[in-house]
Each structure stands twice: as structure tokens, then as C-alpha cells.
Amino acid sequence: MSVKKIWFSFLLIGLLAVAVVASGCIGGETTTTTTTTTQIQEQITLKVIGPWSGAEFDAFREVIKAFEAEHPNIKIEYKTYRAEDLSTILPLQFESGDTPADIIFMWGWFIADMAKKGHVMELNEVINPDEYVPGILDTTTVDGKIYGAPFTAAAKPGFWYRKSFFEKHGLKPPETWDEFVALLEQIKQIPGIKAPIVSGDSVGWPISDVTEHFILTFGGAELQQKLINGEVKWQDPQVRSIFEERLVPLLNAGYFSDPIEWTSAVDLWWKGDYALYFMGTWLTGMVEDPTDLGLISLPGVKAMVLAPDYFMVPKYTTHPTEALELAKFLATEGQRIHVGTSSGKLATWKEVTIDDYWEPMKDVAKIVTNVESAPDLDDSVGGEWQKTFWDQLKLLWVQPDRLDDVLKTLDEKFPKE
């Protein structure tokens, strides 16, 4: 072989070697190292604050797991806070340009208030209002902009009973008001019964739920909304008659127990000290055998409270893109997952079907769809008046003869525009 050919061969080998090395740098270890570094940088943690603990959090945890499975670069850190505590913590932190979490579940009216002060991100690009229960976004919409998204909702449909208890004592659900009163009297005569209805209490909300059920049955959703807006006074004859002719006579007859801490009341009712318990649908996840649950709404009920858990994305989140991605998931597919657990909740996203529900909630979901939905009265008004409402109802429960004083106080303390 000539010298020129030998040198030409070496030159080709050299060029091939350079090409191989270059190829390795472009598609091999260097690129892999860069990708790995990028992945590490993209691994973030979103903080979520919600009201759930215990069994309720176990249900919500399934939603978190599903989101993390779809987004392996995002981890969720969850903390439990009471809304009452957040109402004092958040305004101070927001004013300082800080937030304790990227997603915060809170009262709808509070979210709207924070939005007016410029602390909350808009969600109009995240959710489609047409896909939700009508009116569900009104509470968290300010000047046409959505600031709070709805998660699943608790319904407050009526008085729960144990089917086995009714069968044992030959009791039947009533179809008229007179039959309802007769049922309470029949239950009162059963040996060992302390009262036909146990009155759950906490800071006051379980009793307020009972009261709203009476207003919605005998006044409808329109009256409830007018009370929320302050368009109708509590001393108005229509409102007063609901208390005077329906609720107060039952209190005077001893059909309701005195207020009892609501979780303790669950145990007492379940073991048979009481026959009926007015509670939200989350009760289905708190009893030993949900299949033993029956439900009695007041005969002729026109509407029921649908109380969603709203959440917001504070403007001070350090991960706005990922936080909005989580917000979209919670408001849509996360609902489908949640209603399939023992959460006892109902979907506010209309894409969820009856087949998606946990079995004990399917009948409840069907009932709720047949009546008009209404906002929670005290949650909608909020503020100091809400606490007044709770306190005055507790007073009414133990002293029904103070009805005039209670209604007068509710009017006097109602927020003025």
C-alpha cells in the first residue's frame, strides 16, 4: 500500500472517531446527565391546606395519590387547619405577601373577600363554568372572574335513621307533616329513648343545618336566598311562622335533645339512645355499616343545601403553573375519585355520573338531584353574624320561649351594607 493510501486510511479512522465521540456527547452520557439534572430541578412539592383529618382525610388521600401518579414530578404535602383558624391567619400572611400553602380550602365568601383585596389568582382559564352545578360558582365569582373552584359538596338532606332500628320497632318513614310529628311521638314512647332526635352541636353549625332544612322546606330556596341577601328580615311574618308553627312546637314537645357535641352524638344515636339525626352526607363515612342507613327529609321539602368545599390559589404561591394544574384536577377528575370513596360527598362537576359513586351514596345522589340546590345560609353570610346565628339557635334549642328575642337579635346583628 502506498504512503498516501496509508495516510488517507488514518484520516478516515480519525474522522470516524471524532464522529463517534461527538455522537456520544450529543445523544449519550452528556445529554443523559443534563436530562437528569432537569428532572431533579422539576421535582417540586405543593402544599395543600384542607379541613379533613382521620377518615375524611383517608378519602381525600386517594385524590392526592391519583394526582401524584399522573404527575410524578409533583409531591403533595397536606396539612389540616380549621377554617375558623385560617380566617385569622391568612389575612395577615397575605398582607405580607406570603402564603402557608399553594392550594387552600376555605369558605367561599372568604375567598371572594380575599380576591377583592388582590390576594387570589383567577381560575377562569382553569375551569369551565358550564360544566358545574348551576349557581355553585356564584359565591366565589367577583366581577365576572372566578377566584374559588368547587371540589365535592356535602348535602344536608334530612334526618338519618338506622333501618334495623325502624324494623325492630315497626316504624315507617312519613309522607306528610302530620305523619312526621306522629312518628316523633311514637319514637318518644319507646323505652330507653332519650329523645326522638339528637341535636348535634359543635360551635353551632349542626343546629343551623336543621334550621335551614325547615326554612327550605316551608319557604324554599328563594326565601333562603333573600335571607342571605338581607332582603327579608328574620322577624318577617313568613320566617317567623316557620319557627313558630313548625320548629318551636317540636322543641317544646321534647322531640329534640339538648345540644350534644356532634361526633359524640353520632355514637349515642347509633347505639339507640336516639332514633333520628340530622346531619350532612359525610355521616355515611362515620358509621359502622352505611348500608343500614335510611334517610327522612321533611315531607314536601323544596330544596336542600349543597355545601361545596371551595379552594383558592393564593397569588403568593412559588409554583403557580403546578398549583393551577392541581386546581384543575381537584375541580374535575379529582371529584370523580372522591365520590367513589367513603367521603359521603356529592360531585359539583356535572361530568361525574351515578355509577362513579360509592354504593351507599348512590340513592342520596338521586334524591338530591330531584330537588333544587341552595347555598348554605350561615356560610354565605359569614363573619361575626355567623357566630351570632349559631349562638342564638343554641339559645332557642334550650329556651324555645325566647323566639322573639332570637329573631330580633338576628336582625340587629345582620351585616349592613
Brief sketch in words of this structure:
InterPro entries: Bact_solute-bd_prot1, SBP. With 417 residues, the protein is an alpha/beta fold. 50% of the residues lie in helices and 17% in strands.
List the topology elements:
Blueprint: H1 3-27, H2 29-42, E1 44-50, H3 54-70, E2 74-80, H4 83-95, E3 103-106, H5 108-116, E4 141-142, E5 145-146, E6 149-156, E7 159-162, H6 163-169, H7 177-188, E8 195-201, H8 205-218, H9 220-229, H10 237-252, E9 256-261, H11 262-270, E10 274-278, E11 293-296, E12 303-312, H12 320-331, H13 333-339, H14 359-368, E13 372-374, H15 377-381, H16 383-398, H17 403-413
Parallel strand pairs: 1-2, 1-3, 8-9, 8-10, 12-13
Antiparallel strand pairs: 3-12, 4-5, 6-12, 7-10, 7-11
Helix pairs in contact: 1-2, 3-13, 8-9, 8-10, 8-16, 16-17
Protein name: ABC transporter substrate-binding protein
Keywords: Transport
Pfam family, one: SBP_bac_1
Structure report:
This protein is α/β, with parallel strands linked by helices and 417 residues long. It folds into two domains: 176 residues, D-Maltodextrin-Binding Protein, domain 2 (3-Layer(aba) Sandwich); 174 residues, Periplasmic binding protein-like II (D-Maltodextrin-Binding Protein, domain 2, 3-Layer(aba) Sandwich). Helices cover 50% and strands 17% of the residues. The protein has 17 helices and 13 strands. Strands 1, 2, 3, 6, 12 and 13 form a six-stranded mixed sheet that branches. The N terminus is likely disordered. Belongs to the bacterial solute-binding protein 1 family. InterPro entries: Bact_solute-bd_prot1, SBP. Keywords: Transport. This is ABC transporter substrate-binding protein.
